[in-house]
Amino acid sequence: MAPTEAELIDDLNRLMAEEAEACLRYFQIRFRLRGRGRETAEKFFDEAIKETLEHADAIAKQIHALGHVPSLQINVSLDEGPMTPDDALAEALEVETAALDAYQDFLPRVAGHATLEPFIRQQIAIETEHVQDIQDVLRAPGNLTLVIKPGA
Amino acid sequence: MDTWKQFEANELTHSAAHHLLAIHEVGLQYGGWARVSDIARELQITRGSVSINLRALKKRGLVETDAHRQVKLTPEGLQAANAVMATRAVLKTFFADVLGVPEVQADIDSCKIEHLISHATAERLALFQRFLTSDPAELKQLLKRFHRFHAECPKERSCDVCKGHCPMDTLPQAI
């Protein structure tokens, strides 16, 4: 059964929360980084903060375009302890994989939708690339430069 | 006394306990297996948060995951979840059936307090309730007397129980 517009908006709000919360998480992780590779990891998280915020904004605009006001509900308590760059990236991998799963689960619900289907497909492509990038770095410790995009 | 510092020193954090309960609840329909998305909906948090929290539970051997990123309680995780549910049930029964606290409030308070009391205290409370319920007729009389006594709280709002700090007067303002 096709989802109602209200259900689609709920799902979009949840996707926006994933991105906004990831942004806050990365914002804080940046200050917890310690040890070898910290500076490079900081650059990665700087970039990740911008991208997750852009994604949250893009989803909010989709919600708005459908005639609704975005509703952001997040409830997160973040740790304060120091993190090695590898641990931080492992956490980022969890977050990005969760976001990718969320987009993939949502795709069948927007099949045939003129604007949402291409938008979600695009997000899946981007998140897939992120996950792949982080996995590559974690397989090759000490090579954090792999995930820094040109111009970052 | 450093008791207040023990608030976050439990073996299982309040958040971790809720994750275990959510996995248990969601997994009941699927042979114990739960999806991250369903756990997130149950707890009303993001999938990202669930994934991060599951990492910690997995490290402690309380949950396991499969190739499809589904989650299941390990025997240790199930034991921990059962302990949480048992303590909560004991507290809720005490609040609702003995003290006469409304069901909804009893549910909320048992959830909060479960995390704070020791297993030893929970066991004693369970034993006390078994004792109370061992004679239903006497329990009925006792509760009748209790509720009558409650209604006749002394005017001076001070007794051997509250030691001069009557909760009847202070709690409504504190909350």
Descriptive overview:
The complex is a heterodimer of chains A (152) and B (175). Chain A has 152 residues and is mainly α. Chain A has one domain: Up-down Bundle (Ferritin), CATH 1.20.1260. Helices cover 67% and strands 0% of the residues of chain A. Chain A is built from 4 helices and no strands. Chain A has helices at 5-32, 38-65, 85-106, 116-139. The relative contact order of chain A is 0.16. With 175 residues, chain B is mainly α. Chain B folds into 2 domains: 11-73, Winged helix-like DNA-binding domain superfamily/Winged helix DNA-binding domain (Arc Repressor Mutant, subunit A, Orthogonal Bundle); 84-159, Diphtheria Toxin Repressor, domain 2. Chain B is built from 8 helices and 2 strands. Chain B has a two-stranded antiparallel sheet with strand order 1-2. In chain B, helix 1 (14-27) crosses helix 4 (75-98), helix 2 (36-43) packs across helix 3 (47-59) and helix 4 packs across helix 6 (119-133). Chain B is elongated, with a radius of gyration of 20 Å. The A-B interface holds A 14, 17-18, 21-22, 25, 73-77, 90-91, 94-95, 97-99, 101-102, 105 and B 15, 36-37, 44-52, 55, 69.
As residue ranges, the low-confidence spans of chain B are none
The gross shape of chain B turns out to be elongated
- The number of strands of chain B is 2
Note the total helix count of chain A: 4
H and E string of chain B: HHHEEHHHHH
Q: Structural class given helices, strands, pairing of chain B?
A: mainly alpha
CATH architectural group of chain A: Up-down Bundle
CATH superfamily (homologous) name of chain A = Ferritin, core subunit, four-helix bundle
Which CATH architecture of the largest domain in chain B? Orthogonal Bundle
What is the CA-CA span between the terminal residues of chain A? 44 Å
Helix content of chain B: 55-70%
Which strand-content bin applies to the residues of chain A?
A: under 5%
Q: Average pLDDT across residues of chain A?
A: 89
Number of domains of chain B: 2
Give the biggest beta sheet of chain A. Answer: none
- The CATH first-level class of the largest domain in chain B comes to Mainly Alpha
Largest sheet of chain B: 2 strands, antiparallel
Shape of chain A: elongated
Instruction: Tell me, rounded to a whole number, the average pLDDT of chain B.
Output: 86
